[in-house]
Amino acid sequence: MLVDAHAHLLPRDYPEDAPACFPRMEAIDGDTARLLVFGAMRFRARDVFFQAERRVEEMNASGVDAEVVTPMPPLLRYDLPVADGLALARHVNEFTATLCAVAPERMIGFGMVPLQDPDAAAAELAAIRAAGLHGVEIASNVLGASIGDERFLPFFAEAERLDLPIFVHAMPAATDRLPSSAAGTYVVGLEGALAAASLITGGTAAKCPNLRISFSHAAGGFPLMVPRAQYFWSGSWNEEPPNPERAVMPDDGPSPLEYARRFYFDSMVFDWRALRYLVDLLGHDRLLVGSDFPAMLREEPAGRSLRLLGLPEEELEDITWHNAFRFLGIDPPR
After folding, report:
1. CA-to-CA distance for 81 and 143, rounded, in angstroms?
2. Radius of gyration in angstroms for the set of CA atoms belonging to the chain, rounded to a whole number
3. How far is CA 188 from CA 18, 139, 170, 218, 223, in A?
4. Strand partners, 241
5. DSSP element (H, E) containing 220
6. Model's pTM, two decimal places?
């Protein structure tokens, strides 16, 4: 069995009376795809984004048994007025619930919230759960602010209380330190790292110990940064017993690595050697299969690089499906 824990959707349409700041999906002559128009964005969305039957066909072709389906990241527009952001989230969430209801054993839907207003976002979580959605997707920053900022703590605390998992998708923030052409590569990696690190350094991970949270693309550079933080905390190399004489920033713990091992990370890192490092450092029980489908083409078959590691069967099955249901907090199908 294989569960793709990082896949996306787009609604087929939006209400005719929607605010002008809403996206539009325009027909393309002679094509089953539709054109997403959202501000300056123009994106050709294949029918698999919004047609349940096509999604199931594509899953079958790739050897995928189920998908965790989340909104396409450009829909996470935190610059919209709060009322419009809430209306957009509710429309997308309703579409997601309807799409997934066609084949609930194959599509596991996540909602979205207007995180530009943490209180409104927290209040919307109960509606997401009542709609039959299984979690919520957020971006790695909110208008440039780290998600670990204390202003977002009530949102995370409410998600923990409701037992709703959170998927953090790296979202490039404007920077003058790299060219715009690097937004989809290096900046995404930086964003994932900053998001994960901010939840530790900002105190959210400590205050919400039972929060289930996963990061797209293995949180970018975060797994390579954690050993340095671990050294500053412990004064020792290779996670050996602490050496207080060398520790630069000791505290009562948990350690940075212990916090990191509370998170989940998807395997969309494009190289089996990177996957090996993630398994070795974070543990096979922390990894999920991810593909970014259909925004990106899946590896064929899905999970091919993961299988190159030669993991014991029980560890491989944890990554391909057991961990996904642990993250979701639901029983796997029989």
Report:
1. 13
2. 20
3. 31, 11, 6, 11, 14
4. none
5. none
6. 0.96
242 exposure class (CB count in 10 Å sphere: 0-12, 13-18, 19+): middle
d(CA 91, CA 190): 31
3-state secondary structure of 35: strand
Q: Are 3 and 306 in contact (CB under 8 A)?
A: no
- The Cβ of residue 215 has, within 10 Å, a number of other Cβ atoms equal to 28
In tens, the pLDDT along 28-49 reads 988 999 999 998 899 999 999 9
Q: Are 84 and 57 in contact (CB under 8 A)?
A: no
N residues, the chain? 334
Gap between the Cα atoms of 116 and 85, Å rounded: 8
Q: CA 38, CA 88: separation in Å to the nearest integer?
A: 12
Contact by Cβ (8 Å): 293, 8:
yes
What average pLDDT is seen over the chain? Answer: 96
Give 205's contacts (C-beta < 8 A, 6+ positions apart): 199, 211, 259, 262
Residue 242 DSSP one-character state: P
Which residues lie across from 315 on neighbouring strands?
none
